[in-house]
Amino acid sequence: EAPRVGELIQDQLSYSRRFEQEADRVGLQAMANAGYDPQAMVRMFAAMQRMARLQGGAPPEFLLTHPVSDSRLSDAQGRAAQLAVADSYQSDTLYDLMRARALLSIYHNDPGQARSRLAQGGADEAAQRYLDALIAARSGQVDTALQALDQLAAENPDYAMLPASAAEVALQANRTDDAIDRARRWLRFMPNYLPAQLILAEAQLQRDPQAAFDALRRVTDRYPENPQGFNLLATAAGRSGHDGWGHLAQAEYLQLTGRVDRGIQQLAIAKSAAQQENDTSLVALIDQRREAFVDYREALSSFN
Fold first, then answer.
1. pTM of the complete model beyond 0.85
2. Average pLDDT for residues 201-210, to the nearest whole number?
3. Are 244 and 279 in contact (CB under 8 A)?
4. How far is residue 219 from each of residues 38, 76, 190, 192, 222, measured CA to CA in Å?
């Protein structure tokens, strides 16, 4: 049985690596189309690989789940060499919206700098208004921010991030009922939209931890590689009295964020809690996950 489990884990890693390779290629093509030199991504991979080697073959935590192997670097080099870089970048609203959000995160202590950088990049008006709304929310002008986001969402109905951002603003302002209403309203249009599901679950944590726990069990089943879902599930489980599930969710979060050893330690705590709760099915699940974690750790070591 053990060799079979190892084979399954190796198959899963190979499957994941194929997706990773395709993602690299799509990213390189997107850079070229946007007018950026795809060789910059190759240089970044090389720098990440050097970083791992400088640490004695043990990569930093953020590289554990997606290590830069020689084959990955070679594939990126070959693909980048074949790509033609566009002369200029043509503005795209969704890209500009995401860039606005990223710039505010980078310049969180200086929103004016984020606004200047966005304008210098030739972002369209919708993105600049979006950034202004987010800045207003941070400065406590929640009503102004929500009105602006609602107007933007009405004008740009194809961009789900706009109503999701409004629900997030409401949640961060402790307007829990408003956040729940907004998330539920948007989920009626897009039932599987993950950001809205996570916002709804986080808001429900303030009102009904058991409902949040049930919702997050479904979310993590559907999106097992999303660490935020497991992080929220750990909190919901703790608040609703599901200690075994709480420690299991924390273990999954640690594993997904590259801390496999700590995840395995957390599984031991989860098993003890599940045994105290006399939850035999959860104990069996934890044992399965521990075996998978250990095999995953061993398989990762072969890539270093």
1. no
2. 94
3. yes
4. 35, 33, 14, 9, 5
